[in-house]
Amino acid sequence: MIIVKQTLDKISEFKNPLKKFFLDIVILIFSSQGKINFRNLSRYSNYHDKTVSRDFKIAGFAILKTIFMI
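User: That's the sequence. What structure does it adopt?
Assistant: Structure tokens below.
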């Protein structure tokens, strides 16, 4: 998880709440089994599925933009 934290710190578009959200989701993805979708992620976390989809869209786009810039 240290690698994920260091990567998120390099992305300047991420504010602290979005960093915390993305770390929680990454931990949840690696620890869950079966199909991964917004409803299942919200079922096993403290986030609503609308929150997961909205924040994942913001976070995912920022990460993809950063990856392709490097």
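The mean pLDDT is 78.
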